[in-house]
């Protein structure tokens, strides 16, 4: 889910206003990327987001098939722990090998959120209607995400390619 959010943030960045490759704003200790050219977005998406998404999908697919193939409860628990270790290995390496000052610097880098356009303002709805519309949108997104996740899990378990 983080990969989709990261992709959305990169794709929705506006172009820099001053003709530069990127536009960076400083807000206190935070460095906020508020604009990027199309070539910068393409490089970030192709070099970071697409490989990360492919690795996540492959590990999820292979790990779920591996867990489904286990025969005993004890092996299932051990395999689940091994899979959790594999998925968290990159974060553990980062936490152990990167110096604290670099970790603190990485935490200060942020991508600006896109401006939110409230559909209720465009449609001229009242405040009560706007809250209901927002609740329905959030509920529908969660429901669609849950249905999609169940469908993909079913396809992996059944063995569809």
Description:
The chain has helices spanning 2-11, 38-68, 73-97, 100-108, 119-123, 127-158, and strands at 22-27, 30-36, 109-111. By secondary structure, the chain is mainly α. The chain has a 3-stranded mixed sheet with strand order 1-2-3. A hairpin with a 2-residue loop joins strand 1 and strand 2 (30-36). It starts with a helix and ends with a helix. Mean pLDDT is 75; it is low at 125-136.
Shape: extended
Question: Order of strands in the sheet with the most strands?
Answer: 1-2-3
Structural class: mainly alpha
- How much of the sequence lies in strands comes to 5-15%
Helices, by number, come to 6
The succession of helices and strands, N to C, reads HEEHHHEHH
Rg, please? 21 Å
Count of DSSP E strands? 3
Low-confidence blocks of residues: 125-136
Question: What attributes does this structure have?
Answer:
161 residues, 10% strand, 70% helix, three-stranded mixed beta sheet, extended, mainly alpha
Summarize the structure.
A 3-stranded mixed beta sheet has the order 1-2-3.
Topology readout:
Layout: H1 2-11, E1 22-27, E2 30-36, H2 38-68, H3 73-97, H4 100-108, E3 109-111, H5 119-123, H6 127-158
Parallel strand pairs: 2-3
Antiparallel strand pairs: 1-2
């Amino acid at each position: 889910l983080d990969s989709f959010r990261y992709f959305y943030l990169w794709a929705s960045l506006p172009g820099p206003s001053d003709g530069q490759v990127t536009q960076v704003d400083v807000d206190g200790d935070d460095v906020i990327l508020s604009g990027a050219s199309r070539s910068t977005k393409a490089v970030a998406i192709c070099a970071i987001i697409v490989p990360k998404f492919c690795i996540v999908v492959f590990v999820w697919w292979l790990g779920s098939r591996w867990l489904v193939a286990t025969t005993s409860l004890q092996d299932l628990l051990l395999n689940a722990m091994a899979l959790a270790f594999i998925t968290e290995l990159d974060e553990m390496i980062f936490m152990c090998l990167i110096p604290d000052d670099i970790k603190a610097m990485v935490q200060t880098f942020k991508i600006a959120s896109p401006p939110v356009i409230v559909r209720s303002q465009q449609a001229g709805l009242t405040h009560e209607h706007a809250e209901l519309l927002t609740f329905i949108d959030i509920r529908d997104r969660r429901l669609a995400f849950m249905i999609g996740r169940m469908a993909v899990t079913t396809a992996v378990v059944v063995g569809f390619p």
